Amino acid sequence: MDRACRLRRVLGGGAALLAAGLVYALWVRLTGLALPCPFRAATGLLCPGCGVTRMCLALLRGDWGAAWEANPVLLILLPVLGLLAVHMALRYVREGRLTGPRWENALCWVLVALLIVWGVVRNLPLTH
């Protein structure tokens, strides 16, 4: 697959993801119905991603305070995740490789660990 084809693939996937997110946001705004968290439904506990819909809707309104209340850790990690996604997409377009260097894999594991810690901390009695 050549570079132009990979670029079309990345741009098409990004556009589809953005469109799906905007349609979901519109759906939630109009109906008030959002997808429930299966982890919370099963355990009664907040998962690391609980509040992401509210956070995204608040960001679309420009309400940083509400976004922070919904999920502060994901709000902080959002720029890192965005830059990582752009870096991975650029590598794929330029080189055709999906796997990255060791530092990128290490960063992904650090982000996973942070989210796991956040998932535990946000359910401690002291944080409510």
Please tell me about this protein's structure.
The chain is mostly helical.
Name the descriptors.
single chain, mainly alpha, 6 helices, 75% helix
Overall strand count? 0
In DSSP terms (H or I, runs of 4 or more residues), the helix count works out at 6
Rg calculated over all Cα atoms = 17 Å
- Overall geometry comes to globular
Class from secondary-structure proportions: mainly alpha
User: Average pLDDT value?
Assistant: 94
First CA to last CA: what distance?
52 Å
Major sheet, described briefly? Answer: none
Helical fraction: over 70%
Low-confidence stretches: none
Please report which band the strand proportion falls in: under 5%, 5-15%, 15-25%, 25-35%, 35-45% or over 45%.
Answer: under 5%
Return the string of H and E elements: HHHHHH
Short characterization:
The chain has 128 residues and is mainly α. The chain has six helices and no strands.
Reconstruct the topology from this structure:
Blueprint: H1 3-31, H2 38-43, H3 52-61, H4 64-70, H5 72-95, H6 102-121
